[in-house]
Amino acid sequence: xxxxxxxxxxxxxxxxxxxxxxxxxxxxxxxxxxxxxxxxxxxxxxxxxxxxxxxxxxxxxxxxxxxxxxxxxxxxxxxxxxxxxxxxxxxxxxxxxxxxxxxxxxxxxxxxxxxxxxxxxxxxxxxxxxxxxxxxxxxxxxxxxxxxxxxxxxxxxxxxxxxxxxxxxxxxxxxxxxxxxxxxxxxxxxxxxxxxxxxxxxxxxxxxxxxxxxxxxxxxxxxxxxxxxxxxxxxxxxxxxxxxxxxxxxxxxxxxxxxxxxxxxxxxxxxxxxxxxxxxxxxxxxxxxxxxxxxxxxxxxxxxxxxxxxxxxxxxxxxxxxxxxxxxxxxx
Length: 332
Known about the structure:
Blueprint: E1 30-33, H1 54-60, E2 67-72, E3 81-82, E4 87-89, E5 94-99, E6 110-112, E7 126-128, E8 134-141, E9 153-157, E10 163-170, E11 187-191, E12 198-200, E13 203-204, E14 216-220, E15 224-225, E16 228-230, E17 233-236, E18 244-248, E19 254-261, E20 264-267, E21 279-283, E22 290-295, E23 298-300, E24 304-308, E25 312-315, E26 326-327
Parallel strand pairs: 1-2, 2-5, 3-6, 4-7, 5-8, 6-8, 7-9, 8-10, 9-11, 10-12, 10-13, 11-14, 12-16, 13-17, 14-18, 15-19, 16-19, 17-20, 18-21, 19-22, 20-23, 21-24, 22-25
Antiparallel strand pairs: 25-26
């Protein structure tokens, strides 16, 4: 089914119609995934015969044609797309859009693992190796309870120039004795490789499960370049000072700048346990090969804008003509 099979004039958010903002071409196709009511033996090309799994929908897409997968929510967690292994999104210009109310937190077009927190971790839970993709209007939840010191990354993007809008990356949400929130190296979002992604109106992190190790809401590595975060909300709950919102504290983590514009960094405050104030960012000063730039951002319950190095620039007000940004360190 191509986009031309849909009538013009429908403007509901997330529906595959001309003029809705969905990318399409003359050979583009759409596939519907309904985890609650679909079957992977269906064609997936109509709402009456939806697929059940995202893996099958991705298998049916063709790279470079601007095919789109629509993940249908039902307003509850019953229609969550449950993963039993890593989901690899490897086809360029292949898009994933949730069909649900466009709220900012825990949208009910949702991707997770089994409802009972698994003890066997697969990480990253979702791995994007493709470029030129649009991801919009769904949420993800990771609540592994591995029972040992095992880190987990919820979503890793190794591709380039992908666009994210209104997605909640809810990582490190386990509630057992050994959840991934307590392990160094865990992350909600990891960017490696090419970069040049845009994140708009996204929520990154959870403020319900206390983090107690050197993990991060967002980790930048492998010279990921020119990533932009606009109007995003970063959430955390911390019982120690070691977690970070942004971790670029490694050699060649960046390639030039990463920009954060009008973002909120909020750690759980006046809520116990888990109301320790973390730092926003850490960058290795000598060899990160770039800078974090924070423009017109706000923070709640933080200990510092930068936990390490002066490779963080903040501009939270109207600068004078001579100001190009203020360098900060752990004492600021």
